[in-house]
Amino acid sequence: xxxxxxxxxxxxxxxxxxxxxxxxxxxxxxxxxxxxxxxxxxxxxxxxxxxxxxxxxxxxxxxxxxxxxxxxxxxxxxxxxxxxxxxxxxxxxxxxxxxxxxxxxxxxxxxxxxxxxxxxxxxxxxxxxxxxxxxxxxxxxxxxxxxxxxxxxxxxxxxxxxxxxxxxxxxxxxxxxxxxxxxxxxxxxxxxxxxxxxxxxxxxxxxxxxxxxxxxxxxxxxxxxxxxxxxxxxxxxxxxxxxxxxxxxxxxxxxxxxxxxxxxxxxxxxxxxxxxxxxxxxxxxxxxxxxxxxxxxxxxxxxxxxxxxxxx
Length: 312
Prior knowledge:
Blueprint: H1 9-16, H2 20-28, E1 36-37, E2 43-44, H3 47-61, H4 66-73, H5 79-110, H6 114-124, H7 128-143, H8 150-158, H9 169-182, H10 185-203, H11 212-227, H12 235-252, H13 258-271, H14 274-287, H15 296-310
Antiparallel strand pairs: 1-2
């Protein structure tokens, strides 16, 4: 086509698919200025204006605003720079949309009220740093000023909720519940009581570490009792309890007597809040970790069996 060919606004509209009103707006804004005027005063555009208009339409479809488009056309900034910045902005928008989608699906699943929906949306929008700060505040408030088990506190601090960019509804649901739990004053008080008890045990020289082998023995032994329907108040339960208390006596270097059973019962009662296990369950769901088997039924059975044996 001849480079000297001039087009009216109507011609441009037919060639680009844009409306006359839109082209006139771009023209008035100086983004696609007219090349010339007809004798009757109508605007005329050359082939470069047509190409410029095509570029404007493409950039608008990509979501760039007119101020940015003007800078690109006037060569104040390069197209690669704009593309990179815009791609980063789109990543944020996409993540926000994914979170909204996950929140809506979670709301639909749990039948949330308006207030719950608002809370879920606010908590889901928290950044990684804000989520870490929320859990960090819980840990500081719970263990601050105590001679707590340093390994356990370090484990808590290293196990932070990492909500993925495209979370499943269950992960959003778990994060909301975890955030509510971590901010619950009653739960914080319960965990602090547990930490104070452990600190007192440490001060008396008793071991309060995580005895994984012993815990596994308790889980397997009582798990079999639960599977076979042995009641914690039965004679058979008394024999099972005696086997386990002997193992505790060996592990902690204490006599297997009534005092040990009382100490063990107190230990189970202090650590027996099911919300503590729920905390780790929720964290596993959020982070996509394998969910550990529940020990709540095991320790509930053991506690009842010890109470039956001690008369407490």
